Amino acid sequence: MTEFHFDLHGLVRGRVRGPEWLIGPARRELGFFASAEPPELDLDIQVIPGSLKLVGHPFSWDGHHLGAQWRVRVKSESPIGLEVEANHLCRFIIFKWIIEPAIRVAAQKNGAIMAHAAAISDGRNGLLVAGPGGAGKTTWVLSWLNREKPYLSDDFSLYYKEKLKAYPTLMRLSGNNLLVNHPINGLSGGNKAEIWLRTIIRRLTLGRLKIYFKSAPQQSIKNLIISDDVSLAGAIWLADQKTEAGKLPRRITPEEMADRMAAVDESEAHGFGAGWLPSDFWPEHRRMLTEALTGKPCLIVAGRSLPPDAGSLEQLMTRL
């Protein structure tokens, strides 16, 4: 049994306990936020390996995905204390399906927003880059970083009191990210070959096996600068041109942007907390997004595109 602690900018302080082979992937994801044991916890998770065949053990909710199975018991509400019984295949999904959703709940409880959107920074302002899976968010981030801009986030964005905060978890890279002039200069030839192999397997299984190559942003890109806190300047939605009605790009209201983002966020929670989260959790999440975006420009642009050439986010928004 081992444990690790993390601290997300003082907004969520957590501890995860369990066998290293089961929680190790989550430790790697949160490596940037590794910390000494905090005096107080917002989130305490214990992961217990098990076959999940026993009966008579009450649990708060359960889940499964491609052979991975788990059951969650809520042990306390403040701090949020969770006991997770998980089979051996859960090591592949434990961060995205269990631990990160728990962090999102704790963050919202403390007044912060975690949204399934990338974010780019020019050092002063930040722009949310949202959209469904496969829309090209990572491509936008890499193209922006290729202009020697600081890194903000690639998968989820963290927002608190009008500021976007860096959230550098592991990047999930595909072959498409190697085709354009991107700054992935920290990986070896073997790493890049593995990226292509995993991309081919993913396509052969029609995306059912989401076996992305994962690496820390600082490992993928040499001399990467992590952004300081920046003000939220606006948001864009990367749309599927085959299904999106209307001319692109076009401006939308903050309410519509919040609706789109909240729908993706709820889907990406993978049923976490079903029957435990209060009924107003997701409506409150949508309200917080709307409040954060009010007064900010919100645009829909074509997905799988590249950001226009611009030295600042203000220039970028005017050139879309």
Task: Please give a structural write-up.
The protein is α+β, with helices and mostly antiparallel strands and 320 residues long. It has two domains: 2-110, no CATH class; 115-170 and 225-319, Phosphoenolpyruvate Carboxykinase, domain 3, CATH 3.90.228.20. It contains nine helices and 17 strands. The protein has helices at 20-29, 94-109, 137-145, 176-179, 189-204, 217-220, 254-268, 281-293, 313-319; strands at 2-8, 12-18, 43-49, 61-65, 68-77, 80-86, 113-115, 117-121, 125-130, 151-153, 157-160, 163-165, 171-173, 213-215, 230-239, 250-252, 298-302. The strands form three sheets. Strands 7, 8, 9, 10, 11, 12, 15, 16 and 17 form a nine-stranded mixed beta sheet that branches. The chain has a six-stranded mixed beta sheet with strand order 1-2-3-6-5-4, with helices on one face. A hairpin with a 2-residue loop joins strand 4 and strand 5 (68-77). Helix 7 (254-268) runs antiparallel to helix 8. The longest helix is centred in the first third of the chain and has 16 residues, at 94-109. The protein is globular, with a radius of gyration of 19 Å. The chain starts with a strand and ends with a helix.
